[in-house]
Specification:
Layout (H helix, E strand, L loop, with lengths): L2 E5 L4 H12 L3 E5 L3 H6 L6 H11 L3 E4 L6 H11 L3 E6 L6 H6 L1 H22 L4 E7 L12 E3 L4 E3 L21 H20 L3 E7 L11 E2 L2 E2 L1
Parallel strand pairs: 1-2, 1-4, 2-3, 4-5, 5-8
Antiparallel strand pairs: 6-7, 9-10
Helix pairs in contact: 1-3, 4-6, 6-7
Length: 227
């Protein structure tokens, strides 16, 4: 049976991905060691969502409590499923600007090094699989703040004559801007995903979302903001 590997599988995007692919009949392997509880405290734990997935899907969902930085454990897992793996959805991350500034080493190793571990395991054991990375709009840094805005009755909007009026695409530069350390670690991961696609001809893609939430979000208070 074809296998889908999902990192951050008990988080918001990861668990929605589990529901989608398990619902289609795929064998889903979830990787999530509940680092969210480490980042934001027990109230932000994703353990409740992990148990929900196990209870709902039984044998169709295999949960692995592995740190994505653990190269040996990740490679062992990818080797086990090998060419049966058709898709990797990588959503695991350290997601906070403030947290990154307080512990840059952990932020970078999770976001950048963890992504490298996963990409290389994919290349070694299932190179034909599609690798999807949940990046962030923070790769653009503060550059979007300098776009020409027009004040409307209820909101500010990018000038209708500007090429980014309908949305910012990859042509916006990520250089010469202030990203935050979180943004910088996600830039590193984003570029790695692109490079593995181009250099090794792998099927990789980055999705640069922002401010995503939903009913499966294990929210946590952090300096007055929802993380």
């Amino acid at each position: 049976m074809s296998t889908v590997i999902i990192t951050g599988s008990a988080g918001l995007i990861g668990s929605q991905s589990v529901h989608f692919f398990a619902g289609l009949g795929f064998n889903v392997v979830g990787i999530d060691n509940d680092m969210r509880a480490v980042f934001f405290g027990e109230t932000a734990s994703t353990d409740w969502n992990r148990q929900l997935l196990i209870d709902q899907y039984g044998d169709r969902y295999q949960h692995k409590s592995i740190d994505i930085r653990d190269r040996e454990a990740i490679e062992s897992l990818f080797k086990e499923y090998g060419a049966d793996t058709v898709l990797i959805i990588h959503t695991a991350a350290q997601p906070s600007h403030d947290w990154a500034a307080n512990d840059p080493h952990t932020d970078f190793t999770v976001n950048a090094n963890g992504t490298l571990v996963l990409l290389e395991a994919t290349r070694q054991f299932c190179p034909q699989a599609v690798f999807i990375f949940t990046s962030t709009n923070k790769v653009y840094g503060d550059t979007p703040n300098y776009l020409p805005l027009k004040e409307l009755e209820l909101r500010w909007e990018i000038d209708a004559d500007h090429p980014f009026h309908t949305g910012i695409d990859e042509s916006m530069s990520i250089d010469d801007s202030k990203h935050s350390l979180f943004g910088a670690s996600k830039v590193a991961a984003d570029i790695l995903v692109q490079e593995y696609g181009r250099y090794f001809q792998m099927k990789t893609a980055s999705f640069r979302g922002g401010c995503l939430t939903g009913p499966l979000h294990s929210g946590a208070k952090l300096h007055g903001f929802l993380a």
